[in-house]
Amino acid sequence: MYGWMKKFGDEPEVVAAQAFKSKDHRLREMQKQVRELQEENEILKKAMHFFGWHTSERMTKELVLQALKQAHGRQRPAGEVLHHSDRGSQYASHEYQKQLKVYSMIGSMSRKGNGYDNACIESFHSLIKKELIYLNKYETRAQAEKSIFEYIEVFYNNERIHSSIGYATPSQFERQYDFNTVH
Asked: In CA terms, which of 6, 61, 64, 163 is 20 to 30 Å from 107?
């Protein structure tokens, strides 16, 4: 007991109570951080604004790199940002992963065969097909690209309301939050 007293300066029960109190405090702080992250994640999951997109005849790493560069150029997010994609070879490519690091983005990929991990983009693909692509016949690629541009940049981002974000447009919803302050 003497060695304990000399080393810790208090009775074992006091030291244990202080350690427990300290652990309890750290646990509460960690739980608070988890709650904050969950709230921020819920906000971010609803952020439907498209900042970067590109069209091409083929799905290539150059295509996704152009979309990534456009998104970064428009947003210039502060700090590290989580970037989620599917498991396509374009996103797994060395060049794409390198560009994510340049932009301080942390790559996250869907689980193999699980479309629910990327439900937001899957939903968007369904919408653009139903609301635009299947309703039009394009004679040239240029016509299709112009139509897609107008759908995303004018209609989808700025006019189309979404029930999941309180019947606001993605632009309106985004203005409610300063996403650069979400950590």
From this structure: 163
- Give the 3-state secondary structure percentages of the chain, helix then strand then coil, rounded to 5: 65, 5, 30
In whole angstroms, give the CA distance from residue 99 to residue 96: 5
Q: Which of 50-54, 69-73, 85-89: highest mean pLDDT? A: 69-73
Residue whose token pair is 């590290």:
80
Chain-centroid distance, C-alpha 119: 12
CB 151 within 8 A of CB 128: yes
Q: Residue 27 corresponds to which amino acid?
A: L
Q: Measure the CA–CA gap between 65 and 132, rounded to whole angstroms.
A: 25
Residue type, 117: D
144 has pLDDT over 90: yes
On whether the CB atoms of residues 158 and 168 are closer than 8 A, the answer is no
Other Cβ atoms within 10 Å of 169 Cβ, number: 19
> 109 in helix, strand or coil?
strand
137 backbone φψ class: left, alpha, beta (φ>0; ψ -120 to 50): beta
Q: Which residues pair with 178 in a beta bridge?
A: none
Sole residue written with tokens 């060395």: 94
pTM confidence score: 0.68
Confidence of residue 83 (pLDDT cuts 50, 70, 90): confident
